[in-house]
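[INFO] parsing input record for Threonine dehydratase
[DEBUG] input buffer:
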Amino acid sequence: MAVSYHDIVRASRLLEGIVNKTPLVKSLTLSKICQADVYLKLENLQYTASFKERGAYVKLASLTPEERACGVIAVSAGNHAQGVAYNAKRLGIPATIVMPENTPYTKVRHTRSHGAEVVLKGTVLAESMQAAHALQQERGLTFVHPFDDDHIIAGQGTVGLEILNEGADFDTVIVPIGGGGLASGIATAIKARRPDIDVIGVETKLYPSMYEGIHQKEFTGGGVTIAEGIAVKQPGGKTLEICKELLDDIVLVEESAIERAIQMLIEIEKTVVEGAGAAPLAALLDHPERFTGKKVCLIISGGNIDSRLLAQVLMRGMAREGRLVRIRIEIPDVPGALARISTLIGNADANIIEVYHQRYFYDIPAKQTDVDMVLEVRDTAHAQQVTDYLKENGYGGRLLGNTSLD
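[DEBUG] output buffer:
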């Protein structure tokens, strides 16, 4: 293989004082929930909130003076963009980042804040890649690949080296896989010293590219995923070769498990993670029997999640757990009726989040109206108590939507 353990050791020396040696912490609560000894390697605590700055620095530091003077170009919708832009600025290298036109503005803004020129081109990453190659030829730039590069792989492998140097005797390390740079580097580092440790990759079921590549299947990835950081339709040639040889397995996870993992990490560990960073915990949630009783290290690869998406995930989690419910109440269409209902709900210790007052679109009498309310409650039992209390006071009501009481 092109990347060796010694390459990763050299990369680690190069990164001394450049990137954070991120914490490796045990989660007592997650260990109890998952019935395993669960540790978190918190790469979301890097300056750019992702492991990507490791490989980016190693790659940029390898360039000749002539290449540095001409500048570099990269394609990314997120973490790689920031990793390259940040480290290019530190090394005095002009950087151009091509991003899809629909990239969230916060990611564009963060990339520009590091001094890079951002070019918005293409509706999908493949179109952005074509635009980047055209600019590369036109300007004589060096292309910095997000994963299929020896220096990138060696830099990402320093995560695995840090885990080994902590001395924790793990049974399993679970790493998210997009293009495979992180998984390749970590597997190379760990298997060189501890071949007895299982290194398991995790992909979303919508983008199982490395799994398909290893099993020589047609690439089928596509769709909208919450884990856009690992939404790669085809792995790299170098990374596929390494993962095929060194990974013990790849597990696939559902979108719902990734959502739940994001919610659990922020509520339990008070740490913000993106979808890709939550994928290793999702693997524990989706495949509990696989890891029961084992000492497991989860690579929390990044924390760059859009704040609006994070809010949506947390609210959906509350609905899933029965802490946020919808209720439809039948009331007479007279002045004061809605105020009376609001008072009753307050008396029942529930909180009104939203109100939809409908008179025209339901099959109801002309002098009656239906009110749909979103309520915050303690749990599903409390939701039922609120409904019963309304009925006791003369107002018919029933729970709607995705609640266990329907």
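[INFO] Residues 322-400 form a domain with the Alpha-Beta Plaits fold (CATH 3.30.70.260).
[INFO] shutting down worker
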